[in-house]
Design goal:
The chain is an alpha+beta fold and about 180 residues long. The chain contains six helices and eight strands; from the N terminus they run E-E-H-H-H-E-E-E-H-E-H-E-E-H.
């Protein structure tokens, strides 16, 4: 059972089947998925399948505004197992996130990210967390800057399998020591 994480304005909890309509509401927006590397959701059944597969693994949380926990407005998670395309070493994870367009510009993703990073470093014993953004995704870049990630490398030929494209991706990193220096 996934933990429930809480911030001043947010509740981060596991995704549920009944969240599919809310997921579809925000993930069907053309401004969301392609910037993060996935196509917009086409119907509620697709969103439900994502909840049952992608969101069921690792440490993936629904981002909910306090007092409105029945309608997730975004997602944040730590991927603990790497892949051929995105290898991870022991003690590493990759941070991924998105939030619905009506909630952009409110500082909600950095707030959620700091909480899940704290969870990763304290509860999961992570040593470092990687986080990437595709060139041109200035909002995601800004989230990473606000959370004190530092530049690690650029991949000029990142295969974005779900979109059938190749993009330039910038990878940043935050170590456990840096996190606790900035967030005492």
């Amino acid at each position: 059972m996934r933990m429930i994480l809480e911030t001043e304005r947010l509740l981060l909890r596991g995704w549920r089947d009944e969240d599919a309509p809310s997921l579809f509401k925000y993930a069907s927006d053309e401004r969301i998925g392609p910037a993060a590397g996935w196509p917009p959701h086409k119907d509620v059944s697709y969103s439900r399948a994502v909840i049952r597969t992608v969101f069921a693994r690792d440490e993936v949380y629904a981002i909910c505004l306090k007092g409105m926990e029945k309608e997730p407005v975004g997602s944040i998670g730590l991927t603990l197992e790497g892949s051929k395309e995105r290898p991870l070493s022991e003690g590493e994870a990759e941070l991924g996130y998105w939030i619905g367009y009506p909630f952009w510009g409110r500082g909600l993703v950095p707030e959620a990210a700091i909480e899940i990073l704290k969870h990763g470093f304290m509860d999961l014993g992570l040593k470092r967390v990687l986080c990437g953004y595709f060139q041109g995704n200035e909002r995601s870049k800004r989230v990473q800057e606000k959370c004190c990630f530092k530049y690690l490398r650029t991949n000029n030929d990142t295969k974005v399998i779900m979109l059938g494209e190749t993009k330039v991706e910038h990878i940043n990193v935050l170590t456990r020591e840096e996190f606790f220096f900035y967030y005492k």
